[in-house]
Sequence to fold (267 residues):
Amino acid sequence: MLERWRVQPGTNVDLEAVDPASTPGAPGGKEATLAALPALTVELADLQDRLAAEARRSLLVVLQAPDAGGKDGTIRHVFHGVNPQGTRVHSFKAPAGDERAHDFLWRVHRVVPAAGEIGIFNRSHYEDVLAVRVRKLVAPSVWRPRFELIGSFEALLAHEGTTIVKLYLHISKEEQRERLQARLDDPDKRWKFRPEDLADRVLWDRYRAAYNEAISRTATSQAPWFIVPADHKWYRNWAVSTILVETLRKMDPRYPQPAEALPKAVG
Fold:
């Protein structure tokens, strides 16, 4: 099942070749797919509970997407059934203060999930080979070596017991336009709109090229990328839920057993 979304290591990714409105593997249309979601939500919560009880390994979920790509919605819908005590979400904004005074991975390493936790990154260390490249914030001689540094960092996390799932939510330029317009039209969503979104939209092709290279250069067996067609939110939620559930099934977290039987009550 996972292979329909997973990027194989060594692949030259071309996002233009992936239809963002496609629904590969879905149980059916919108209604059938929505009907399949509750069972996945229940199983995700159960697997998370086992992971927390086992307290030996962790899961890191990296979410990347264009503006209005659905990162917030994915977190809200996919993780609504899990125990907040075992889940941490971290959103990465433009670095400031102490973050700017350290290496680009410093702020990321500080918030990776601890043993027993699921950590969710809303944007991530990949902004340092995406946004900084597209907006020309640093020279190529600075951001290009970061591909190798990111690979080494993720290998370290994997070696220490963190399973990594990197998700690119793939939307079309037209879908982005509709979502940005919806934010402007709806008073309850207008707060989400940022003028910078329009500036970045002009750079769509540059971002697409940057994502193609970033995903191609950093897709590994221990830190795989998954490209999820995300024009249809109902499909996106099902696909992401499926990827996470199947990943945790493979991890097979188990409740610890007591070292010895509890003593019988006296009297």
